[in-house]
Amino acid sequence: MEEDSKCTALSVLVNAERICYRQRMMKKIRARTISDAEIESFLEKYKLYLTQHELKFTNQRKIIISEFLRAGGHVSAEDLFRSVKKKAAGVGLASVYRTINSLVEAGLAVERQFLDRSSVFELHEPGHHHDHLICMRCRKIFEFENDKIEELQKEVASKLGFTLQDHKLELYGYCQKQNCPNL
Ligand SMILES: [Zn+2]
Ligand SMILES: [Zn+2]
Ligand SMILES: [Zn+2]
Prior knowledge:
The chain is of the alpha/beta class.
């Protein structure tokens, strides 16, 4: 496979800023940005996956991935498709689905489903675990991590003879955002 480090879409990737809202219990929300090194490692893994599956890192894929990284947070295939269309009108929804599914298969993205909505996708960041709070009115998704909860879950699992491998914690309620129709 040819090396496309000079591709413009790639430089978009490297410059992509992902705002990821994480909230420690009771502490102010802070933003996290993916570092260049993380993007490089992401691309390396994805290219390896594509080679193993005899697929090419096409321009379409580059644009879709760059928009996925730029979108940050939790994005549906339809929303991703809308932003990709602005960059490259010729890209179809099926290509967006194929690319996003390949990211999930490669272990680089995670598919989630909240409430009755269609799936949303987010970056899988090794070493950056988080759980979710979902507003049932405005449907905003908040990310949080709480060490006590993490420990308690391990404790519960181990008491029941489980070695914990993974978990998903989703809390549903009403947020305090000013534009939330709940207020
Ligand atoms: Zn957790
Ligand atoms: Zn809300
Ligand atoms: Zn998340």
